[in-house]
Amino acid sequence: MIDASRYTAISFDCYGTLIDWDSGAGAFFAEWMGQARLGGADVDVLEIFAQAQYAHQSTRPFKPYPDVLADAFGDVAQLIGKRSDKSEAFAFAQSVGTWAPFADTVDSLRRLKELGFHLAVLSNVDDISFTTTHARLGNLIDTAVTTEMVGTYKPDPAMFDALFAALGTKGIGRGQLLHVAQSRFHDVAPANAIGLDVVWIDRRHGRSGTGISMASDAEPMGRFESLAAFVVELERSAR
């Protein structure tokens, strides 16, 4: 059981944890490829994209996230032998703010606010895309740290350092923070490395493949199959 009394703030990975990025990106790829849906073996397109995205996030100097998305889209097109142009890549890069939250996200965030938690986001995204996404999240996030603010991407621990600094200005120490994420590669592994409490929302449970996440065997302090289940655990602990 998670002891809710230990924490003042909860931070989230955004895309993949709060926002259904597999469905959002998958729908764009499916339409682009002329398919009715993206499923079965075609899910490999998302995994190809994940590898291309990470490669562009790892380049130096720092590449802004819209450029990462556009360049990774072009790589996917080349790898699967489908022609694309810059307008399609640009449209994909601008689509992030249209991706929908998971069905349990907004209600879960509201319930956590009712429990008195300060809510934060630590995301590999640009500021404009997150601003649009934040409206879809009911404007419930108190502190947001984006990759545009930091100049690097998770799993770089500098992202977490920036989160600690931002929360510190609000009187919240790192020992009062619980991190919540879907990606074991981008979030659970680096959180473990720096001694930050972290739980895993296994959004892909029951499905094969990794989607846009990268493979990792990092072990969290707890695993939940939905954000709603995680909130129920905290509510039980807080009683």
Describe how the helices and strands are arranged.
Blueprint (H helix, E strand, L loop, with lengths): L8 E4 L8 H12 L11 H14 L7 H16 L5 H8 L11 H10 L3 E6 L3 H10 L6 E4 H4 L6 H12 L8 E5 L2 H11 L3 E4 L20 E3 L2 H12 L1
Parallel strand pairs: 1-2, 1-4, 2-3, 4-5, 5-6
Helix pairs in contact: 2-3, 3-4, 5-10
Polypeptide structure, described:
The radius of gyration is 17 Å and the shape is globular. The chain has helices at residues 21-32, 44-57, 65-80, 86-93, 105-114, 127-136, 147-150, 157-168, 184-194, 227-238, and strands at 9-12, 118-123, 143-146, 177-181, 198-201, 222-224. Helices cover 46% and strands 11% of the residues. It is built from 10 helices and 6 strands. Strands 3-2-1-4-5-6 form a 6-stranded parallel beta sheet, sandwiched between helices. Residues 36-42 have low confidence and may be disordered. It has 2 domains: 4-20 and 99-238, Rossmann fold; 21-98, DNA polymerase, domain 1. It is of the alpha/beta class and 239 residues long. The longest helix is centred in the N-terminal third of the chain and has 16 residues, at 65-80.
